[in-house]
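testing teh design pipeline on a random one, pls ignore if ur not involved
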């Protein structure tokens, strides 16, 4: 076989395995996504995951001053998604905290007082998706801080672990609940 024949053979063989289109992802495959800030990809990812919710969003947060995230959670609640938030008591007293605003919009909120700070930042969406990372739900996280948001989709086993921790925090926190 000559050099050209070998190259032609390799080109044909590779074309059988390499496609310009990525392979279809099975709907049950775990999908991981990451976003960073500043730069906008972290907040975009958080807003996207909130927008994808169909039935429930459990939020555990430390500082929560980002109005876009608050509006996205309110919009989810208005479309019938059951949204509940457990937040750090001290951070909720911040002048720019959205906790009072979302609570006033009818989203059940409880405040964690047991810890020096309740520093969690995660959401469990529809019992199958988790958003976590260092990204606080704040204006500073979007514009000033180097932070990350990490989303794990189609992962009910991981979501169950986070939901269990969220429920523990919810049960020991104070607030109007529901």
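output:
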């Amino acid at each position: 076989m000559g050099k050209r024949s070998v190259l032609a053979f390799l080109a044909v063989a590779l074309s059988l395995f390499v496609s310009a289109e990525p392979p279809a992802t099975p709907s049950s495959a775990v999908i991981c996504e990451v976003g960073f800030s500043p730069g906008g990809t972290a907040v975009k990812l958080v807003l996207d995951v909130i927008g994808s919710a169909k039935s429930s969003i459990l939020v555990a947060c430390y500082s929560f001053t980002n109005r876009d995230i608050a509006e996205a959670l309110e919009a989810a609640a208005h479309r019938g998604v059951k949204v509940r938030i457990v937040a750090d008591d001290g951070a909720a007293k911040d002048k720019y905290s959205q906790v009072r605003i979302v609570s006033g919009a009818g989203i059940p909120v409880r405040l964690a007082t047991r810890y020096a700070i309740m520093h969690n930042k995660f959401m469990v969406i529809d019992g199958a998706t988790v958003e976590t990372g260092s990204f606080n739900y704040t204006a500073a996280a979007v514009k000033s801080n180097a932070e990350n948001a990490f989303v794990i989709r189609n992962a009910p086993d991981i979501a169950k672990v986070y939901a269990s921790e969220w429920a523990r925090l919810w049960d020991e926190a104070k607030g109007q609940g529901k």
